[in-house]
Amino acid sequence: MTDRIIPIADARYSARTPPVPELAHASNGLLSDARGRPLRDLRISVTDRCNFRCTYCMPKSVFDKSYQFLPHASLLSFEEISRLARLFVAHGVEKIRLTGGEPLLRKNIERLIEMLAPMRTPTGAPVELTLTTNASVLPRKARQLRDAGLQRVTVSLDALNDKVFRAMNDVDFPVADVLAGIEAADRVGLRPLKINMVVKKGVNDDQIVPMARHFKGSGHIVRFIEFMDVGASNGWRLDDVVPSAEVVRRIAEEFALEPVAANYEGEVAERWRYADGSGEIGVISSVSQPFCPSCTRARLSTEGRLYTCLFATEGHDFRAPLRENWSDDQISAAIGALWGQRQDRYSEIRSSETAGLRKIEMSYIGG
Ligand code: SAM
Ligand code: SF4
Ligand code: SF4
């Protein structure tokens, strides 16, 4: 086949896109990468746009009025996403998470959910289908999403204090409206909810205990996430990270906590429960305790590039093969070959040398 290097609209993403391998033999069935890790999770970014400008994700200084988001024609269609998802499920994917950008901004997202919801793993189990959202449109969308077959949502909320939250989302969005979104999701049964809080030292770390207190007893699980060096525009510094051990220590000063075993091997959040039985919290320690050895995630970007690590600098284009009518066997073979050669372990080797890499923005690759 000819050189499949696809020109990229925006050099910020990568200088070139490596081709997907075209192999003679179809590869189906469960996969294992070069470090023995299976493929279990697929995160699908359905849009690179967002109505927030969270300072740690899409800072206004970069994502301003002149920023060129992807044109509609370059997005994977729902049919293309569903076809790829089906092939990934045949390779062991058990969980699909829709993300972005803000996934609820993608027009008719319910239709995509309807297409993905009936999927079954090769053993006949339903594929777990979830979505991560800033909740801004959840109050009016929750019921439609549930009716379409969504099982649960994760809502991002970085503070309970309105002033702190408005400053972090940087579009003056009020906490009350996110809480209304959480309530709406809960009411229609998209529960238990997970609430993601990215913790940034000196910005919202005074919100750790108030967030824990607010959701204690609600059935929802707050997950405190270490501020990560994703992308190349959020000005990350190690000094801004509050290690998860410190988060747990601060909460445990107020409420007795006990460690809980992981739900399954490879779970990224470390679980803790309140000793009085009123629920649990999680901490995600990508910086202080990397979980690369058990990382089973692949990410599909809005325009169909596959990334085998959140911190990747290169993705593999699957949109061209889809639009050039490759057969399922050919696409399966490409998925198998790419996963088979996967070596990624960025968080384990994070250092001054990795700091200069031109990593893909989280809003593009999907959080
Ligand atoms: N817009 C949706 C939302 O905010 O929930 C989905 C996409 S967002 C990129 C997915 C998750 O990534 C959010 O929970 C967000 O807080 C998290 N995130 C974004 N940038 C991050 C960073 N630099 N470090 C840690 N988490 C980050
Ligand atoms: Fe938008 Fe989510 Fe990124 Fe915030 S974290 S800017 S809501 S994509
Ligand atoms: Fe997985 Fe890459 Fe994160 Fe390591 S750094 S846990 S390989 S996404």
Overall pLDDT score: 90
Unreliable residue stretches? 1-19, 22-26
Report on the biggest sheet. 12 strands, mixed
Through-space gap between termini: 33 Å
- Total domain units: 1
How would you name the oligomeric state of the polypeptide chains in this document? single chain
CATH class: Alpha Beta
Shape: globular
Helix share, percent: 25-40%
For this structure, the CATH topology is TIM Barrel
Category from helices, strands and their pairing: alpha/beta
Radius of gyration from the alpha-carbon trace, in angstroms: 20 Å
List the ligand species.
S-adenosylmethionine, iron/sulfur cluster
Spatial strand sequence of the major β-sheet: 7-8-9-6-5-4-3-2-1-10-11-12
DSSP helical segment count: 12
Please provide the ordered H/E string of secondary-structure elements. EHEHEHEHHEHEHEEEEEEHHHHH
Name of the CATH homologous superfamily: Aldolase class I
The total beta strand count reads: 12
- β-sheet strand percentage: 15-25%
Describe it:
With 367 residues, the protein is an alpha/beta fold. It has one domain: TIM Barrel (Alpha-Beta Barrel), CATH 3.20.20.70. 28% of the residues lie in helices and 15% in strands. A hairpin with a 5-residue loop joins strand 8 and strand 9. The structure holds S-adenosylmethionine and iron/sulfur cluster (2 copies).
